[in-house]
Amino acid sequence: MEVSAIEEAARECFVNKNTVQTSLFCTALQKRNIDTRKKMARIVESTDYLALTNYNKQVVLTKQIFSEATKPPALPSHKVASRTLGVKAAPPPIERPAIVPPTNFTKAVAPVSVNCDTQAITDLLGDIVIDIPDLDNVGLTDIFIDVGSNTSVKTNALCIQGEKFIAHSDLSIILEKLPGGGPTVKQSNRVIFGQTLHRLATVMYDGIVTGLTIRIGRSVSGLLPLFEGLIEGKNILLCGAPNVGKTTTLREICRHLSRGKCLCLIDTSGEVCGDTGHKHHIVGTSRVFRPVDPDKQYATLLDCVRNHSPDIIAIDELNTKQEVDVCQTIALRSIQMVASVHGNIEDLVFNPMLNKALGGSTEALVSDRNAVDGRKVVMQRTTRPIFDVVINIKRTLRGLEYTFMENVADNVSRIMQGKSIQISTRCILGEELLETKEEVVYDVSL
């Protein structure tokens, strides 16, 4: 590994800044013919002035090794031959397109409206709710109640412990208020309580309930400007880490797409619509199906195709390869698909169970001419992707950000090869829609 080349890449990236995205540093290294696949952590560790942070998504300059005003040195020209007698000139570096600086624009929109039935949580928890200071905070996503511990909540991805100590009797009082005494493992260990969108799951230890997790459910209106011009007539995949707003986004998309269309929504867990019969304001005119057996979600998908004349089929949470196979069958019948799945874009590309949604993957032997960073065994797509647009949702300090990847077939191939792709990111702040278009490299080697 060429130490000077790594420092040259650092000089290029860290001008007037101390933190950069790992993907940008990866690109700077690749310009210098350094193979970064599965080596980024080792490359950073080989220096005493760099460190990885934010789950390896960012590189930090820990020690100033050069002046910020220093101009990055030019790459050696492959046109200049070596003047040392008997020494062969180095091969030309791999030519890579420069990363285009991001472009931004804003647009005035109506503010987002959030509705959350906090009274149902108060009624369920009783005195325990005193330990939860701000139920109206949109950053509050989960409440954790465990026997032998204090209550805790997750707010803006940070767990905060309260003062209320939980006993078995506290759990018993809560469970008695739920239909059927609470969720069962057979039904995916989830129950929607009250006429709400809130979800409750139990923590089991040796067959005994020792804890509860309450996921706060909210309906949101005003998100449609985020998807303007990107979802009509296209197969859409919503992805992201658990609890970032995929189900909330699916509700809004279903409400919009169901206008003048027959949209069949598979709501297996009841999280999209809840147990309420008043679903019209949540998912529009969508027809809602709830499988009796959650493990046979794919059978309900097929039933919709065969018997209910759908124009669009939407499903919350693809979980198995069998469900992905059925989605492919549906897409080939000219029915629009909308689905959500756990995992970010770069995770799904190499997920053997679910990546068929993005075209699958296989190893292939290529010629020297098509080798990637000197590797002749490369990853390639095996088929056409099911989805036309992938929307990656991420929770940030300024709210939810939506990253859109179009031209999925071409872009997935480029991700597999470690090449840059074009994406756009949108978010709503107050009464403004912010959009950034940029070129990024997803470092799938870490």
Structure description:
- With 446 residues, this protein is an alpha+beta fold.
- It has three domains: 1-75, Arc Repressor Mutant, subunit A; 117-215, Beta-Lactamase, CATH 3.30.450; 219-440, P-loop containing nucleotide triphosphate hydrolases (Rossmann fold), CATH 3.40.50.300.
- It is built from eleven helices and 23 strands.
- The protein has helices at residues 3-13, 22-31, 40-45, 118-125, 168-176, 246-257, 280-283, 297-307, 321-331, 345-349, 408-416, and strands spanning 19-21, 50-53, 58-61, 103-108, 113-115, 140-146, 150-155, 158-165, 191-192, 199-205, 208-215, 219-221, 236-240, 263-266, 287-289, 312-315, 336-342, 362-365, 377-380, 389-396, 399-405, 421-429, 432-440.
- The strands form five sheets. A ten-stranded mixed sheet has the order 4-23-22-21-20-13-17-16-14-15, sandwiched between helices.
- Helix 8 runs parallel beside helix 9.
